Amino acid sequence: MAVLITLPHSFPLQPVNGNRTRWHNVGQRRCTVVSQQQEVCTEFNRIKINKSVLKIDEACSESELWATSLLRVRSFYDFKSTFGIQDHKKYLAEREFEALKERVAGTKEGEKVSCINATLPLSQTRSFPEELCSSCKFSHDGEKRVVVGTLDLNQCLSLPNEITGMKPKGLGADFARAYLSNVCVADECQRNGLASLLIEKSKLVAQDWGISDLYVHVAVDNEPAKNLYLKCGFVYESEEPAWQARFLDRPRRLLLWMGLPNNYNW
């Protein structure tokens, strides 16, 4: 399944349906580019991935963040064959790249963000579309790899324009609460369990940060995403009021919660 992110309103793009989770819809994503929509994808040739060479880890270089930004633009937007679309794709990727660098750098007080990626060696992607391999590749330790899935882990009290989690309460909530966002798997690589692996890795990173309560937002009509999150251990906590969804011009959200083991005593 593929995941989706936030989409722009002001360009001739066909938004996909709901929260930046393009998973055929998995979760939600924050971005600088505007509205939030998700879709259910259907028509891609699925590629069986060799998981022995798959790497799930935190992004550690600007070149990897750039490849990630290109995958997100590729996954979260449905582009039409329009004059100048390549320039527009580059513009969107540059905006996401700058925003992602800023988030990961931790320049905003009270927030900590990690970009977690699923990557494959370029040598193992011969059956992949050339466009995916050329745009989403990066070099690490002398090896060329391709980003095929990604998400953000956000340690903060709340995400902009989203339902706020209720746990934990009291002192230390800003340190012990986190949200997943920008969940995204390349369409061709769906149904390989990559989203589940990304979520499992995010849980380990969150525990290392001292997170006790992990959240994710999902559109109410996004059944594949809901099923994924429930399978991974999330449970229902609350939902967005209908008036708020109408005001923000998007599908209504559910807020799902998961408790994590936490040895920290805030």
Automatic annotation (TrEMBL):
<dbReference type="GO" id="GO:0016747">
    <property type="term" value="F:acyltransferase activity, transferring groups other than amino-acyl groups"/>
</dbReference>
<dbReference type="Pfam" id="PF00583">
    <property type="entry name" value="Acetyltransf_1"/>
</dbReference>
<dbReference type="InterPro" id="IPR016181">
    <property type="entry name" value="Acyl_CoA_acyltransferase"/>
</dbReference>
<dbReference type="InterPro" id="IPR000182">
    <property type="entry name" value="GNAT_dom"/>
</dbReference>
<feature type="domain" description="N-acetyltransferase">
    <location>
        <begin position="87"/>
        <end position="263"/>
    </location>
</feature>
<dbReference type="GO" id="GO:0009507">
    <property type="term" value="C:chloroplast"/>
</dbReference>
<protein>
    <recommendedName>
        <fullName>N-acetyltransferase domain-containing protein</fullName>
    </recommendedName>
</protein>
